[in-house]
Design brief:
Oligomer: single chain
Number of helices: 14
Structural class: alpha/beta
CATH superfamily of the largest domain: Alpha-D-Glucose-1,6-Bisphosphate, subunit A, domain 3
Largest sheet: 7 strands, mixed
Shape: globular
Radius of gyration: 22 Å
Strand content: 15-25%
CATH class of the largest domain: Alpha Beta
CATH topology of the largest domain: Alpha-D-Glucose-1,6-Bisphosphate, Chain A, domain 3
Number of domains: 4
């Protein structure tokens, strides 16, 4: 059984993430602890799946606190002293839903997910009637919003006079980001800010194409900053005042440099992933820190490894993969609302252009090659054989996919998506088109032969 991808369980609600599976996962999770907080995003199937998860948890002996519709980071915030389950498919289409499990405010790691998979496969019976748990309702949104706003006040400048446009994408950011930014003093225009599980305003995944309303608003108006969220508000996309999307690695570089420069640690560390740009390393080094990389979807493991491998003065000041950021001073979860608040406070001082100016933005590109899930393993085995032969002078690392680095500093990474039927190609190089074309050709041939 292979339930979990790089970000929990996701899939079609009729064929994969069914009520039966949700009940089984709930009962499997109940063996881990006696108290759970349970939340969901705005998808139309969320209420039914949350009810199924609750039934599983209760019949497994756990007590459940239902918090209703919340951003995923709000669920994680509420799960800091216990365990949690979030019913969400993040940026997937409305036909999908999913499950994310948390403990101590952090997503389950590989070992914990494997444990859940084994229990789901065994499908144990409910506990005796007098051993079932109980449930209650609670509101965590207010406390979460207050915590984010208070944390953001420790960074940057007051937002008085800053104009921010926020595209909530009919998702859970509607209940958080505009309120937090207004509390901090910003003039906020909210777009697609009603929760609707059909995502009528745009698709849930924030991309340059889907954010056309936000980009047009900025290009035609006088707002200083644009923020786009996905369905559960754990990620953001940043748009500048001209309506152009700022590259995700540039945003990571800006935030990483800020956190590194303002840390009192003797050895400040930023954790990121193999597909992240070298511009992050440049800015972290300039601020006196260092970068550690871990496989995509495993930021928490990277944080633990960096802490375990360091000495007392080591501190992980920030962790990020594209558009997903862990603000370690706030908590151990990915939080797009906190990213919006902190970034807005940084922009409020010098402006976004000044923040970006020190960042060397080399040409970078990501390409998705269609590949059925069942063919990914074979396709990647072929890529591992063929790609180094195409670039014989490059160094090869196969720990997190297939990553090649060339002597001129350019690099490419090929890895299978953990949530969608694609093999991803990432590259950064001055001759970006030539490099991407060559790598993509190898990947397409490998998929065809898989």
């Amino acid at each position: 059984m292979n339930l979990f991808g790089t970000a929990g369980i996701r899939g079609d609600v009729q064929s994969r993430v069914t009520p039966a599976l949700a009940r089984a996962v709930g009962r499997a999770a109940a063996a881990d602890g006696d108290s759970f907080v349970l939340g969901r995003d705005g998808r139309t199937t969320g209420e039914g799946l949350a009810a199924a998860v609750e039934a599983g948890l209760l019949s497994g002996g756990a007590d459940v606190t239902r918090v209703g519709q919340v951003p995923t980071p709000a669920l994680a915030y509420a799960a800091q002293q216990r365990r949690g389950v979030m019913v969400t498919a993040s940026h997937n289409p409305p036909t999908d839903n999913g499950l994310k499990l948390f403990t101590g405010g952090r997503e389950y790691g590989d070992d914990a997910e494997a444990r859940i998979e084994r229990r789901v496969a065994d499908d144990p019976d409910p506990l005796a009637w007098d051993e079932w748990g109980s449930s209650e309702r609670a509101d965590v949104l207010g406390a979460y919003r207050d915590a984010v706003a208070e944390y953001a006040r420790g960074h940057g400048e007051p937002l008085d006079g800053l104009s921010v446009a926020v595209d909530c994408g009919n998702g859970m950011a509607s209940l958080a980001t505009p309120e937090v930014l207004r509390d901090l003093g910003a003039d906020v225009t909210a777009i697609h800010a009603n929760v609707d599980g059909h995502f009528p305003g745009r698709e849930s995944k924030p991309t340059p194409e889907s954010l056309r309303d936000l980009r047009s608003y900025l290009a035609e108006g006088d707002a200083d900053l644009g923020i786009g969220h996905d369905g559960d508000a754990d990620r953001i996309v940043v748009v500048d005042a001209s309506g152009e999307v700022v590259h995700e690695d540039t945003i990571v570089a800006v935030l990483a440099e800020h956190y590194t420069a303002h840390s009192d640690a003797g050895d400040p560390v930023v954790v990121t992933t193999p597909n992240a740009s070298a511009r992050i390393d440049d800015r972290v080094r300039a601020a006196g820190g260092r970068v550690e990389r871990v496989r995509l979807g495993a930021l928490h493991e990277g944080i633990d490894a960096a802490r375990a491998g360091g000495v007392d003065e080591t501190e992980v000041v920030f962790a990020a993969e594209p558009w997903k950021h862990i603000h370690t001073g706030l908590g151990g979860w990915i939080d797009g609302v906190a990213s919006a608040a902190v970034l807005a406070r940084l922009v409020a001082g010098p402006g976004l252009a000044v923040l970006r100016d020190p960042v060397t933005e080399r040409p970078y590109r990501k390409v998705s090659v269609e590949c059925p899930d069942e063919d990914k393993e074979r396709a990647m085995a072929l890529v591992e054989q063929r790609l180094p032969a195409e670039f014989p002078a490059a160094s090869v690392d196969t720990e997190y996919g297939v990553r090649l680095e060339r002597s001129d500093g350019s690099w490419t990474l090929v890895r299978p998506s953990g949530t969608e039927p694609y093999v991803r190609v990432y590259a950064e190089s001055e001759d970006i088109s030539e490099l991407v074309d060559a790598v993509t050709a190898v990947v397409r041939d490998a998929v065809a032969d898989a």
